[in-house]
Amino acid sequence: MTDYERYIVDLAVTVLREVVDAPAKEQRPSTAIRLALRVLLPHCPERWPLTQFWTGINGTHDIGRAQTVTASLNGIVHQLGRSGAYPVKP
Q: Model-level pTM?
């Protein structure tokens, strides 16, 4: 994996982290989120956390949406760590 690819993966994770850190009422689907998930797709051995993130961000219940995107982001980071695309901090 090149430094450029690592930079792009890091940038995509940063976009998703900003969504998770935003207040629940501001967590809405956007082009940036779709692009970030699409960038991460080839680097995740399993697709479920990406799908779950998108499903969660489209949820209607604020607390459930916040919990789902947080759990999904943790799964995404774990998957990226397994593939070696993103450094996982212990």
A: 0.87
Task: Give the chain's domain count.
Answer: 1
| 43 domain residue, yes or no | yes
Measure the CA–CA gap between 67 and 88, rounded to whole angstroms.
21
pLDDT at residue 90, as a whole number: 57
Helices (H), 1-90: 3-21, 31-40, 48-57, 62-83
Q: Give a yes or no: residue 89 inside a domain.
A: no
52-90: pLDDT as tens digits: 999 998 888 878 888 999 999 999 999 999 888 888 765
For 58, the domain range is 3-83
Beta-carbon contacts of 12 under 8 Å, excluding residues fewer than 6 positions away, are: 35, 36, 37, 39, 40
Maximum pairwise Cα distance, the chain: 40
29: left (phi over 0), alpha (psi -120 to 50) or beta: beta
